[in-house]
Structures are given as C-alpha cells and as structure tokens.
Design goal:
233 residues, alpha/beta, 5-stranded parallel beta sheet
C-alpha cells in the first residue's frame, strides 16, 4: 500500500512540474491576434467561417481572429471580372495593420490559372515573392506562414505547391504542406462524401472535415511561434 502511495505521489509531482510549462505555452497565444487571408479555403465557401479549422484553433488558444477570405480569390491573378476580386498581392492592404500571426491559405485558384504554362507559372512565382516581401514589411514582428492547397491531381497544383514551399523558404516563412501532410483526400469520392461540402466538391471541407485538422493546424501555429525568434527589425 505504501509503495502505491509513493508511486502516486511521484506521478503527481511529475504532473505539477509539467503543468506550468503547458500553461505558459498556451499563454503565448492568448489575446494575440491572428489574421488569415486566402480564398474559399478561408472564407469556407457556403458554410460559416466559425467552422474552419483556423477559426476553431484560434478560439481554442484564446486568440483574436480576423478572416479575410474571399471565394475564388488568387494570390497572383486579378479575378475582378469574375466577381472574385483583386489578387491577394493587392488585397493584403485590407488587413488590419497589427497582427501577431499572419496565415495565408491559398493557391487553389492560381493553380487553375497556371496550368502547364511556364510563362504564367513564372508570373505566379514573381508575384508570390512580392507578396511575401510586402507582408514582412507590413508585419515586421509577426509570425507569417503559408498553407498549400490540397493534393488535387490536376495540372498546376503540384507546381503551385512546390513554388509556395520554395519561395516561402527564401523568406523564412514556414509552410504547412496540406498536399502532403493534411491527410485530406479530395480525389477520394468516399472521403469527399463524408468530409466535403458536396460530393463533387474538391476544395471545401464541411465541419467534420475541418475537425480533422484541429491538432494539425495547432501544431503549425506553434511552429510559426517558434519562427518568430528569427524575425528581426
């Protein structure tokens, strides 16, 4: 009996030693502001913004959350004539001037513009690089990260995701590679039926689909927080 009591006491001490560190880690997010800009992955298409994984992670961590998603929007290409607005290279001016975390979730619509055209891909890369430069100038002390599109097996998507990884690395921005690490399978009909907003939808998750990404997204925010150590004036 005494041995069991001693083991329980040691376990309690171990828990108490760990608990303050966990609280301190969460306190680094509480009250901080996260702004998210992007396409319908951010706007959540026809469902409430509050269902998105990024909004739910922000709520979980006690953060202030600002959503600048727009359906059909591109990083690099103006789609005003289609009703989808100016590119994010221009729209970033709409975002609040102060933020602790900046998340860019985009590229799906750029992929359809890029397709197999090397000239258009080069233009996308150039404008993505400009967006990274402008975001750092606007938010010199913020943690900035990008999220790639899902792994849609169509021309342009692999090239866009690869460009996001490469160019963000030049700027020291961490990338959450949704195509490789999210576990989202947009080309799987059964998966879409369960986790997307419609059976033929390859872009927009439903509430259950977003729930799959809560821990995945939270870990990325923690990684972004560590990246702030490398931010200089």
């Amino acid at each position: 009996m005494k041995r069991r009591t001693k083991i329980a006491f040691v376990c309690l001490l171990a828990f108490l030693a760990i608990a303050p560190a966990a609280v301190a880690q969460d306190a680094t997010f509480e009250g901080k502001t996260m702004v998210v800009i992007g396409d319908s992955y951010v706007r959540n298409h026809r469902r409430p913004v509050e269902e998105t994984w990024h909004a739910r992670v922000a709520a979980r961590l006690g953060m202030n959350y600002r959503n600048y998603g727009r359906n059909g929007n591109c990083i690099a290409f103006d789609r005003t004539d289609r009703g989808f607005g100016k590119s994010m290279l221009e729209r970033y001016h709409e975002m609040t001037d102060t933020a602790d975390f900046v998340l860019v979730i985009a590229g799906h619509n750029d992929a359809y513009k890029v397709l197999n055209s090397q000239d258009t891909l080069a233009l996308f890369r150039q404008r993505l690089d400009s967006l990274c430069t402008r975001l750092r100038a606007k938010y010199p002390q913020a943690a900035i990260g990008f999220v790639t599109p899902w792994a849609v097996e169509r021309p342009g998507f692999a090239e866009v995701s690869a460009s996001i990884r490469e160019i963000c690395a030049r700027h020291g921005f961490p990338v959450l590679d949704a195509a490789r690490t999210s576990g989202i399978r947009p080309m799987d009909a059964d998966f879409r039926h369960r986790y997307f907003q419609a059976d033929k939808d390859e872009a927009h998750l439903n509430a259950d689909g977003h729930a799959l990404l809560l821990d995945w997204g939270e870990q990325f925010l923690r990684r972004m927080n560590h990246s702030r150590d490398n931010v200089t004036d």
